[in-house]
């Protein structure tokens, strides 16, 4: 047992580098305390083999995202193969769209060039079709066509006259009528003709109809021939108008075979379509549409490979989508309504994702795995991709994938994926572990100062003086709950400095001092401490009945910690033990009420083992013990109260009272060795607040495990009262040491005869248990 001194609870001055302020400290150029993470990350970023994607593992707030982005950007400067992505109309497949990858910036150039070319092409076509040369050629064809028709009709007319008929071409076809002396006969005149002449006419009608059929066939053939000649004229005129523009395009973008092929097909398609377009307005709209490209990824402003962090990885945000518009109640889409996702923008570089966000959205993780395995980027809406909608829709051509995916997440998520997803270990072979703390050495504190200096510089803050720098280190130790470790929750440290700067400027100061840091910490706590204040108020009003003076049998003050997400605080709790004659053993009221967690239940069984091995070596424990956390109505978990519970039970058995001015925390093993616990700072400060309110008199204090001394990073208020002898912290190694302090009696050690010395606590416990056992045995004998 040892009472800690003020000096033992303060941080050694020799640890701190001698500086006057952050003005004299160079900002850090890299992440501090991340040597192993750097090596793993560099390995993952350097590996170009399949499956070597990266998972950065670490708690939130340790700078995982910033670390991943920073290193990815550094490596992105070494990567040269990244592209613009365009989608164009597929002239072969109406329900498809062609994907073309171009060098960075060429997509934008192509888009601008095609916009200009489309205007030029339209003007050229309009000029050509309005030209005198085109009109002359068209007129020539029309005249030639009319002449051919006339020749056929004249030949038919001559033959018809010889047969006694007149023929005439009408809009409904060729009609004929009998004639005599070059004049058509009426029906009345025809009826008056001699029968032999009428018979001749009737015989000649069959010949005439045969001639008319032949003439109609010839006219149709002429129509077909000249229709094709007119179409040839239009096609030739169109080709003449556009060829130079397309040759210019092919010359400018000759590096891309796929683009050259696209231009050639585009030119042929325009030529073929020329026979269907009826007016210049239609020409204008058609050319504008067909010469449009959909520039999905534009890397024209990039000087290195893309590094994309997607903070909202929904299915369309990540993998793109095909949009639709409604026309007269019908959904319509085409290549111009294809939208890219982050994975397209990151292709050729790095995509960074938060694992927690990634797993929130349906189908996203599955689609990402399939994409990485196939190494193909396919844009398809989620309903189509997973068979939820069988409608025929646009199918954009897949794109080759060249991408390194970096995911960051908590250890729990990493191990969950590793354990239950077979694909995960194949696709994410590089694990980068992020430590949440680093050793408290002079060199590491120097690096920490450098980080603080970079926060000041990057955020244009007031500099920190030497005492403020030390206070930040003190706060970092509190975050890690260990004077031998510095917290790597750099986001929280940066926020503290920014808030301290606010307080310094309220004072119109140009320097952040120790007071500003403390004010920022206090204000942070004030914003979230409502529940703690309510609990403390109940303690002050004695609504929660905790004693801080006197001695009580079978009652001890234990210490617990409540966690509420953004704030944790210590809560003293009364633990009571009652004994009675019987063989029921220890009854844990919390466990019997289903208010005990597994770890706490294990701790109770452990202390049963300890008590049995210590006091029941010669006779069985013939006693019943009930133990309870008074006025605790929530779940009790953890083993840090097992020391206090043990002392309370020993007090109840021996009838020796326990000091109420001292609170106890610590777990024990079956040998009675006191083991370290968590939350030591909050527990001590929780009991201190209560004692401070009741009035400190030098008797108050806390017993903690010896192994927890390194975890004590206490507030100045407590340290000052310890220095002045008003509050105490004792460390113990064994249950017996705690007993002696709490009961003001020697615990007692077994002598060579296996007996405890008279008058000691252990002797009184054994004697009481022996009497109870003898009483029960005697009672059985009398029966």
Task: Outline the structure in words.
Residues 124-158 form a coiled coil. The chain is an alpha/beta fold and 783 residues long. The strands form ten sheets. Strands 1-32-31-28-23-24-26-25 form an eight-stranded mixed β-sheet, with helices on both faces. Strands 9-14-18-2-19 form a five-stranded parallel β-sheet. The longest helix is centred in the N-terminal third of the chain and has 58 residues, at 195-252. It is elongated and about 165 Å long. The model has no long low-confidence stretch (mean pLDDT 90).
Q: Secondary-structure blueprint of this entry?
A:
Elements (H helix, E strand, L loop, with lengths): L1 E2 L31 H12 L7 E4 L6 H13 L7 E6 L6 E7 L3 H25 L1 H31 L2 E6 L2 E8 L2 E2 L2 H5 L3 H58 L4 H17 L6 H11 L3 E4 L9 E4 L4 H5 L1 E2 L2 E3 L2 E3 L5 E2 L2 H5 L3 E5 H4 L5 H11 L1 E2 L4 H4 L9 E2 L2 E2 L3 E6 L1 H10 L1 H6 L2 E4 L3 E3 L2 H18 L6 H15 L4 E3 L2 H17 L7 H15 L1 H11 L10 E3 L1 E9 L4 E14 L3 E4 H4 L5 H18 L7 E7 L12 H13 L2 E3 L2 E3 L2 E2 L5 E2 L4 H15 L6 E5 L10 H8 L4 E5 L2 H9 L17 H22 L1
Helix pairs in contact: 1-2, 3-6, 3-8, 4-6, 6-7, 16-18, 17-19, 18-19, 22-23, 23-26, 23-27
């Amino acid at each position: 047992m040892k009472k800690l001194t003020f000096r033992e609870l303060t941080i050694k001055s020799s640890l701190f580098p001698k500086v006057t302020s952050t003005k004299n400290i160079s900002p850090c150029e890299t992440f501090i305390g991340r040597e192993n993470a750097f090596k793993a990350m560099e390995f993952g970023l350097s590996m170009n083999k399949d499956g070597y994607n990266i998972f950065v593992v670490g708690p939130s707030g340790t700078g995982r995202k910033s670390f991943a982005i920073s290193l990815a950007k550094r490596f992105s400067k070494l990567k040269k193969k990244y592209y613009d992505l365009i989608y164009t109309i597929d002239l072969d497949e109406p329900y498809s769209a062609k994907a073309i990858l171009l060098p960075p910036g060429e997509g934008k150039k192509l888009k601008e060039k095609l916009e200009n070319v489309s205007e030029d092409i339209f003007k050229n076509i309009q000029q050509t079709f309005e030209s005198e040369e085109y009109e002359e050629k068209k007129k020539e064809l029309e005249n030639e066509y009319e002449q051919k028709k006339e020749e056929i009709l004249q030949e038919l007319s001559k033959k018809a006259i010889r047969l006694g008929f007149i023929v005439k071409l009408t809009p409904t076809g060729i009609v004929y009528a009998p004639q005599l002396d070059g004049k058509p006969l009426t029906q009345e005149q025809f009826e008056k003709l001699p029968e032999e002449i009428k018979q001749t006419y009737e015989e000649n009608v069959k010949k005439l109809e045969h001639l008319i059929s032949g003439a109609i066939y010839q006219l149709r053939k002429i129509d077909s021939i000249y229709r094709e000649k007119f179409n040839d004229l239009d096609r030739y005129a169109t080709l003449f108008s556009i060829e130079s523009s397309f040759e210019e395009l092919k010359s400018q973008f000759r590096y891309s075979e796929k683009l050259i092929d696209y231009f050639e097909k585009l030119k042929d398609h325009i030529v073929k379509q020329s026979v269907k377009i009826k007016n210049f307005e239609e020409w204008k709209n058609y050319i504008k549409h067909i010469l449009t490209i959909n520039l999905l990824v534009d890397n024209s402003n990039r000087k290195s490979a893309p590094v994309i962090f997607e903070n909202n990885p929904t299915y369309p945000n990540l993998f793109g989508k095909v949009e639709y518009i409604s026309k007269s109640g019908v959904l319509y889409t085409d290549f111009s309504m294809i939208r890219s996702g982050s994975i397209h923008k990151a292709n050729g570089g790095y995509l960074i994702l938060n694992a927690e966000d990634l797993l929130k959205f349906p189908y996203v993780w599955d689609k990402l795995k399939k994409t990485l395995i196939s190494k193909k980027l396919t844009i398809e809406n989620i309903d189509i991709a997973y068979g939820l909608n069988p409608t025929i829709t646009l199918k954009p051509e897949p794109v080759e994938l060249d991408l390194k995916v970096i995911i960051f997440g908590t250890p729990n998520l990493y191990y969950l994926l590793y354990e239950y997803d077979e694909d995960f270990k194949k696709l994410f072979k590089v694990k980068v572990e992020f430590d949440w703390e680093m050793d408290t050495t002079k060199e590491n504190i120097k690096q920490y100062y450098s980080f603080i200096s970079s926060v000041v510089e990057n955020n244009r803050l007031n500099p920190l003086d030497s005492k403020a720098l030390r206070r930040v280190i003190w706060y970092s130790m509190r975050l890690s709950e260990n004077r031998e470790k510095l917290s790597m929750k750099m986001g929280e440290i940066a926020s503290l400095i920014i808030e301290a700067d606010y307080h310094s400027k309220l004072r119109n100061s140009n320097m952040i001092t120790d007071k500003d840091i403390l004010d920022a910490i206090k204000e942070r706590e004030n914003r979230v401490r409502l529940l703690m204040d309510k609990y403390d108020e109940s303690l002050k009003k004695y609504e929660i009945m905790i004693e801080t003076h006197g001695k009580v049998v079978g009652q001890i003050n234990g210490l617990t910690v409540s966690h509420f997400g953004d704030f944790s605080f210590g809560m003293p709790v009364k633990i009571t033990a009652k004994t009675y004659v019987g063989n029921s053993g220890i009854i844990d009221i919390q466990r019997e009420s289903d208010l005990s967690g597994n770890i706490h239940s294990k701790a109770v069984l452990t202390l049963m083992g300890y008590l049995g091995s210590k006091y029941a070596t010669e006779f069985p424990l013939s006693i019943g013990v009930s133990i309870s956390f008074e006025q605790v109505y929530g779940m009790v978990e953890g083993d840090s109260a097992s020391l206090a519970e043990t002392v309370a039970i020993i007090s109840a058995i021996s009838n020796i009272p326990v000091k109420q001015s001292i609170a106890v925390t610590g777990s024990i093993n079956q040998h009675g060795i006191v083991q370290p616990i968590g939350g030591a700072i909050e527990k001590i400060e929780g009991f201190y607040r209560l004692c401070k309110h009741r009035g400190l008199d030098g008797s108050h204090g806390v017993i903690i495990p010896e192994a927890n001394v390194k975890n004590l990073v206490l507030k100045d208020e407590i340290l000052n009262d310890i220095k002045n002898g008003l509050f105490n912290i004792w460390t113990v190694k064994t249950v017996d040491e705690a007993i002696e302090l709490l009961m003001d009696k020697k615990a007692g050690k077994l002598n060579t005869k296996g007996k405890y010395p008279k008058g000691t606590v252990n002797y009184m416990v054994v004697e009481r248990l022996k009497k109870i056992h003898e009483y029960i045995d005697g009672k059985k004998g009398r029966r």
